[in-house]
Amino acid sequence: MSTTRWWWVRHAPVVNPDKLLYGRLDLAADTGDAAAISALAARLPRGAVWLQTQLRRTAETAAALLAAMDEAAVPAVEAALVEQDFGAWQGRPSREVYRALPRHDPFWSHPSAHAAPGGESFEAVLHRVQPAILALSDAHAGRDIIAVAHAGTIRAAAALALDLDGERALRLAVDTLSLTRIDHIRSSSGAESWRIVALNLPFGTEKMY
Length: 209
Known about the structure:
By secondary structure, the chain is of the alpha/beta class. Helices cover 33% and strands 20% of the residues. The protein has a single domain, classed as 3-Layer(aba) Sandwich (Rossmann fold), CATH 3.40.50.1240. It has helices at 34-43, 56-69, 94-100, 106-109, 122-139, 151-162, 166-169, and strands spanning 2-10, 49-52, 76-77, 144-149, 178-186, 192-202.
């Protein structure tokens, strides 16, 4: 039997004083909460495979954690794990976006299937992220994988492990500087299973809700 241990870390809070929907906007992370960074770093394994996305907030968070751990790993950039693309909504205040949606807009009844103009739906995120997780689990079988990623990505990972559809996965809170631990288990016969060890374990102080 082989167990691959995923340590999913949502990036540190972004510098976003105007409360914009940022999606794939490349905003900086605020890694100044040294106590939270140190506490989270203390929970992470040594000698792991490190992953981040192409957005700077994951790179800056990974760098802060590695510095706190005194490790010299170089995270690999996994583009498939990037945050949901909110298209024309990106860069606009979230309240403005939601207030502009009509009461009967499909977004309110089926948000996971709804894509912003020029963006992608959360269902599309599931179809992008989950095959990448399976491929990476095979590529690094039996290892610890520390993936510094995004709320949408981590919801997709939890949905894969728990066999959730998009609507149910969107109910999961994923705070900044939180840890989600998921094991991918492959038996000697080749059968696959998942185990949730921790979900949205908080280390920072910013809340999404």
